[in-house]
Specification:
alpha/beta, Rossmann fold, 3 domains, two-stranded antiparallel sheet, 9 strands, about 50% helix, about 15% strand, elongated, binds adenosine-5'-triphosphate, binds magnesium ion
């Protein structure tokens, strides 16, 4: 169950996996799969970047291998490292053997700890490699990714060059906290995600929180959208819309009014200044 036939097939299968794509998303996913190119997904927090990779894996029946990026991430944590403890034990146990023999042994596959990038390349079946929040790594690491994404191979000096048997479907996500290199971008198809249109956001709520019902869903989505119009520091994203829908269901609310918004606003807004601004515009937020 791999390979998308066309963009419509990609859309339908993502949908079945619980992810509602628009045309641009479905087209990029189809093309990335067909052309064997990584997708770079950029956009604000909570608009479905990470979830897209998970949905592609589910839609293709593929294994998801995730590399969470952070500042200072290095090869040893991303690619592979030698299991020093095990090597040391082996050396201690091998006192009577020639060093050359021991050396060959302890730099064999049994002593290698494969990290996500190597695992994604060596996985026997279809794989989706999620390189999450790639804008957090430094330039050196970006160079390493570049090499990997060009050749889909990893050279382990003591052992061999490992080449991917089946290329993983690669998704890189970025919050755009910094510009990525042109070289990295060139290797990828670019997908910019933003807040969805009103109907798609309603559909997303209907898929993820069906208990909310159509009427409540319509009104809560309307309120969230009007909050986004307020020039907030951190406008509520899809993640907050879903949290709020669950909150309202838990409270047994069936329509949103000023009082409800006021008492649950902490689910939607996470900055004091945003809350103040929203409260000052309550009349506009709850039409
Ligand atoms: N198109 C969609 N269809 C269904 N659910 C969606 C969609 N987009 C986003 N979601 C839901 O919104 C929530 C946030 O998505 P996700 O975690 O992927 O955001 P993100 O863009 O990776 O955010 P961050 O930058 O904070 O990591 C998830 O619960 C996800 O299921
Ligand atoms: Mg994410």
């Amino acid at each position: 169950m791999t390979g998308f036939g066309d963009a419509a097939d990609a859309a339908a299968r993502l949908h079945d996996a619980g992810y509602l794509p628009d045309d641009a998303i479905a087209t990029v996913v189809f093309l990335a799969d067909r052309l064997g190119k990584p997708v770079l997904v950029e956009g604000p927090a909570g608009v479905g970047k990470t979830e897209l990779a998970k949905a592609v894996a589910a839609a293709q029946g593929a294994e998801l291998v995730r590399l969470q990026c952070y500042e200072g991430l290095d090869e040893a944590k991303a690619l592979y490292e030698w299991d020093y403890r095990k090597q040391l034990l082996r050396i201690q146990a091998d006192t009577t053997r020639a060093w050359e023999e021991t050396h060959d042994d302890i730099f064999g596959p049994a002593y290698l700890l494969a990290r996500p990038l190597l695992r994604a390349i060596t996985a026997p079946g279809p794989t989706v490699l999620l390189i999450d929040e790639v804008d957090k790594v430094d330039f050196e690491f970006e160079a390493l990714l570049l090499e990997l994404l060009s050749d889909f191979q990893v050279t382990i000096p003591e052992l061999a060059t490992v080449t991917a048997t089946t290329r993983p479907f690669v998704v890189l996500t970025s919050n755009a906290t910094r510009e990525l290199s042109e070289a990295l971008k060139r290797r990828c198809l670019y997908l910019s995600l933003d807040f969805p249109g009103e109907q798609r956001e309603r559909d997303i709520v209907a898929t993820r929180v069906p208990e909310a019902g159509a009427a409540l869903t319509a009104s809560l989505v309307r309120v969230v959208r009007s909050l986004r119009g307020l020039e907030l520091r951190k406008p509520p994203s899809i993640a907050e819309t879903l949290d709020w829908a669950r909150t309202l269901v838990a409270l047994g609310v069936d329509d949103v009014d000023e009082g409800v918004l006021r008492s649950t606003i902490g689910v939607l807004l996470k900055h004091r200044s945003d809350v103040d601004r929203a409260v000052a515009h309550l009349a506009a937020a709850v039409p």
